[in-house]
Amino acid sequence: MLLAKLLLAACVITPIAYSWTGATIRNHPADVVAARNKLSSRHVARAEPTNSYIRPCYFTNWAQYRQGRAKFVPEDYTPGLCTHILFAFGWMNADYTVRAYDPADLPNDWAGEGMYRRVNKLKVTDTQLKTLLSFGGWSFGTALFQGMAASAASRKVFIDSAITFVRTWGFDGIDIDWEYPSGATDMANYVALIKELKAACESEAGSTNQERLLITAAVAAGPATIDAGYDIPNLAPNFDFILLMSYDFFGAWASLVGFNSPLYATTELPAEWNGWNVDSSARYWNQKGMPKEKIIVGMPTYGRGWTLNNASSINPGTSGSPAKITQYVQEAGVGAYFEFCEMLASGATRYWDSQSQVPYLVQGNQWWSYDDEESFANKMAYVKREGYGGAFVWTLDFDDFNAGCSNSNGQLYPLISVIARELGGVTIPKKGGVTSAPTTLATTVPTTVTTGRPPMTSAVTTTTTTTCAPATSTIKSSNVCAGKANGQWPDVNNCGRFVLCINSQSYSMACPSGLQFSASLKYCTTATASGCSVTTTRATTTTTKAAPTVRTTTVTPTTATEAFKCTKDGFFGVPSDCLKFIRCVNGLSYNFECPNGLSFHADTMMCDRPDPSKCAK
C-alpha cells in the first residue's frame, strides 16, 4: 500500500545487486534476488460472472489532500464497485492501544463527520458493502507490531482496544498490515496474535449478539519474505481471507527495469528473477497451505517507472533511475493510472509483453510499468480459471475514478470496473449513469464534504478516554446552508469569516488574522486576492454541544498564531506553552490546545500525559 504521505506502502527491500533510492517497495527481502521463468504467452479463457468472488478495495485517507482532479473523498465511491472497503490506516500507540492516524478521521468542527463515518455511510447506498479498518502499513514499520505481539498481555491490550475501536466507528472487521513478520519469533507471535484475535472476535460477537468481525491481513508476495514470516498452515484457519500484495515486484529502488505486477514471468529479464510474479506468488501461498478461496489477488491501479539510462534501449531488463515525479502522486518512480492515460493521450507509446501479460509505456526516456483494462481482464480470467477467492485493488484513488482523463470514454473507475464486471457481474456506469448490479442498492446518494488540508507529515493522537466532543459555534437555524453543497462558503456579513456547510448544518469559521475568505478560491487568502468587499460583522451565533464521543479526545482549534512562521506543513509544539501545539497549512498557522490537561509531546507529535521533558524547546 502506498505510504503515509503515504504513497505506496509496500515492502522493502532491495536485491543486493542494485542500489536503493529510498522509494517505498514491497516483497523484496534484503538478502533476496529473484529469478525468472521462461513462459510462453497464455491463452486467456473467460468464465461467467458470479457474485461469489471477494472484491475488496483499499481507501487511503490521505487522497483527500491531493489537488484538483486527483482529490478523492468517500463520496466519490460508486455503489457496487467493491464488496469490501479497507480503510488505510488505523494506528497504534506505544502502549499498544489503537487510535486514528489522522484527526480528520474523527468528527470535529473542521473535518465534519470525519472520514470513518463518511466511509461507513457508504453502506447506506451499497447495502452489501463491508468495511474494515486496516492497522499498519509500510510507513508503520515493524517495531510496534513486534512489541505488541511479543506477549499474551500486550496482544490482549491491542485486541481489546481494536475490537472496541472498530465497533465504535462502525467497521465490520480488522485488517492487519504488518510489513513484515520475519524470523522464528515473529512467525510464532504472529500466529498467536491472529489466533487470539479470532477467538476474541468470536467471543465479542457472541456476547453482544452481533455478526463476528472479519479478520484479514495484507501479506507479502516475495517467496523469501513468505518463508521468513508466515506459518501458513496455522494462520489459514483464522483468516477470513488474505490480501496478497502481488505488486511492487520491480520498481525504481533498483536500476533493473521490470514489471510492477506481471501475471507471469518473462524471458526478457535475468534468470535470477524466477518466481517474482502474480502466478508464482499465489501458487506458493496455496502450496504452503492457504486455501485458494481465501487468497485474494492484489491489483495495482498505480505503476512503477524509470528514467532510462539509454532512451533507445526500451525492453524490460534495461537499466534506469527513478522516473520523474508526476503531477499528482509526487513520488519519483510512482504514477497513478489516471496519469498514465494522460501520458498516452499526449503521445506516449504503449507496448504489450505477451509473456507477462501486462503493458508498459515509453515517453522519451520515461519508462512506466502499469496495468490497464486489458491486463486487468486477463488477470480476472486467471483468478476464475485458477479458482482464487477474488481480487483487491490498491487503491481506489489511483484509478480514473472520475473519468477525468482527456481520452476517457466516460467510464468511471475503468480498471476497477473490470473487476466488478468480471467477478461480480456488476456494470459500473459512465459519468451520469446508474450502477447495474445483481445486488440490492439503495438509491440515495451521499453528499460530499471537501477539505483543503494538505497531506499530514505527522499524526496527532487521540487518547483512549471517554469525553465529550468540544462545543462548536453553529449559525442559528436560518437556512444559511439550505440548498448548498457540503463545503466552505463565504460569510455574507464578514470577509474574515466563512461558513462550513455539512449536511445542511452550518458552522462559522474564522480566517487567520489579517486574511479574508475568497468565494472563488474557497480558502482564506490576502485581502487583495480574496475579492471580498463585505466589512460588517457576522450574525449572532449560538453554541451547541455535540454528542459524547466514546474513546476519543479531539483537539480544539483556537485562533491563528501570528508570531509563529510556517515554513512547512505539519504539527509543531509551542515552546512557551506545553499544552498547546500549532498546525501549519499552506503557510498559515493555527493554534490548538490539548484537551483535559494533556500536553503536546514534540517527539511523538501526540497529546499525552504531561511530561516537561517532551515539551517543545
From TrEMBL:
Enumerate the Pfam families for this protein: CBM_14, Glyco_hydro_18
What species is this protein from?
Caenorhabditis briggsae
Family, per entry: Belongs to the glycosyl hydrolase 18 family. Chitinase class II subfamily.
Note whether Nucleotidyltransferase occurs among the keywords.
no
> Which residues belong to any copy of the Chitin-binding type-2 domain?
478-534, 563-617
Keywords associated with the record = Chitin-binding, Disulfide bond, Glycoprotein, Glycosidase, Hydrolase, Repeat, Signal
Query: InterPro entries under this entry?
Result: Chitin-bd_dom, Chitin-bd_dom_sf, Chitinase_II/V-like_cat, Chitinase_insertion_sf, GH, Glyco_hydro18_cat, Glyco_hydro_18_chit_AS, Glycosyl_Hydrlase_18
Q: What is the lineage of its organism?
A: Eukaryota, Metazoa, Ecdysozoa, Nematoda, Chromadorea
- Name this polypeptide is given: Protein CBR-CHT-1
From which residue to which does the signal peptide run? 1-19
PROSITE patterns recorded: CHIT_BIND_II (PS50940), GH18_1 (PS01095), GH18_2 (PS51910)
Q: Which GO molecular function annotations are given, in alphabetical order? A: chitin binding; chitinase activity
GH18 domain residues are 53-426
Q: Which GO terms describe its biological process?
A: carbohydrate metabolic process; chitin catabolic process; response to fungus
GO CC terms: extracellular region
Source superkingdom: Eukaryota
